[in-house]
TrEMBL record:
<keyword id="KW-0030">Aminoacyl-tRNA synthetase</keyword>
<keyword id="KW-0436">Ligase</keyword>
<dbReference type="InterPro" id="IPR014729">
    <property type="entry name" value="Rossmann-like_a/b/a_fold"/>
</dbReference>
<keyword id="KW-0067">ATP-binding</keyword>
<protein>
    <submittedName>
        <fullName>Glutamyl-Q tRNA(Asp) synthetase</fullName>
        <ecNumber>6.1.1.-</ecNumber>
    </submittedName>
</protein>
<keyword id="KW-0862">Zinc</keyword>
<feature type="domain" description="Glutamyl/glutaminyl-tRNA synthetase class Ib catalytic">
    <location>
        <begin position="2"/>
        <end position="204"/>
    </location>
</feature>
<keyword id="KW-0479">Metal-binding</keyword>
<keyword id="KW-0648">Protein biosynthesis</keyword>
<dbReference type="GO" id="GO:0016874">
    <property type="term" value="F:ligase activity"/>
</dbReference>
<dbReference type="InterPro" id="IPR020058">
    <property type="entry name" value="Glu/Gln-tRNA-synth_Ib_cat-dom"/>
</dbReference>
<dbReference type="Pfam" id="PF00749">
    <property type="entry name" value="tRNA-synt_1c"/>
</dbReference>
<comment type="similarity">
    <text>Belongs to the class-I aminoacyl-tRNA synthetase family.</text>
</comment>
<dbReference type="InterPro" id="IPR049940">
    <property type="entry name" value="GluQ/Sye"/>
</dbReference>
<dbReference type="InterPro" id="IPR000924">
    <property type="entry name" value="Glu/Gln-tRNA-synth"/>
</dbReference>
<keyword id="KW-0547">Nucleotide-binding</keyword>
Length: 260
């Protein structure tokens, strides 16, 4: 699309961070020829902007302080605010929660088509945790707005979060990106390939094989004449031949793998 591709390191949860993980990410991208534009953005440098957004939301009555535990929040009826919403609690020891009064019920996704969200999309959701750490929903929206992001391509497991993020775009009166949610790549155990599930890391020495496998998963088979091609040649082929429509055409390969 002749745009820019931005690299952002989402490091807003220090207790879960692994030292050096950001460098491993950059090394893997470079080995696979996926070179980013502009400077790398680290979310830990954006706390001031997140706090400004929270201040605006609170000033306009869109937030409340909540002392509920995670278990209590999960037990709350779908689409209803907890009792804390009616209390004048102090911020100390409380999470900051959005009053989700303008929930988004569906989106048009370039890969999945019209997607309808379940009742969960009506739930209030946390913007800052009890421990003071900013929640992903707030951080990613503020960062995307600040960076002028117009297209977001990510896994279908993020679909429920998309509903929350779109609610924030509406409150901030900002245009939301166009979304492409990709079917998940699953391991033999039926779980998605992710660090959470202890999937093995990419082998950077097999970058061309990795790229070919990824493209085939996305519906584009790399022709045999590129079997011994270099990384730039494979990427050039992909840029000129891949289309988001190939995901839908290849959709039979992903039955029962999308949880919307």
């Amino acid at each position: 699309m002749n745009g820019k591709w931005l690299l952002r390191i989402e490091d807003i949860d220090p207790p879960r961070e692994q030292a050096g993980a950001d460098e491993l990410i950059k090394d893997a991208l470079i080995a696979h020829g996926l070179l980013w534009d502009e400077d790398v953005i680290y979310q830990h440098n954006s706390h001031e902007r997140y706090e400004q957004a929270l201040t605006w939301l609170r000033a306009n009555g869109h937030c409340y302080f909540c002392q509920c535990t995670r278990k209590q929040r999960l037990a709350n009826p779908k689409g209803q605010s907890c009792a804390c919403a009616q209390l004048a609690l102090n911020p100390q020891g409380c999470a900051t929660v959005l009053r989700n009064t303008d929930a988004v019920h569906e989106i048009d996704d370039l890969a999945l088509g019209r997607v309808s969200f379940d009742e969960q999309c009506k739930d209030d959701f946390i913007l800052r945790r009890k421990d003071g750490l900013y929640a992903y929903q707030l951080a990613v929206v503020i960062d995307d707005i600040d960076s002028g992001v117009t297209e977001v391509v990510r896994g279908a497991d993020i679909l429920p979060a998309t509903a929350y993020q779109l609610a924030l775009y509406n409150l901030f009166k900002q245009p939301a990106p166009v979304y492409v949610h990709l079917p998940l790549v699953m391991g033999d155990n039926g779980q998605k390939l992710s660090k959470q599930n202890h999937a093995p890391a990419l082998n950077n020495e097999h970058a061309t094989d990795n790229l070919c496998a990824a493209l085939e998963t996305l519906g584009l088979r790399v022709p045999s004449y590129l079997n011994n091609a270099l990384v730039p040649d494979i990427l050039d082929f992909a840029v000129h031949n891949w289309s988001v429509a190939l995901i839908a055409d290849n959709g039979h390969a992903f039955d029962n793998r999308i949880d919307a």
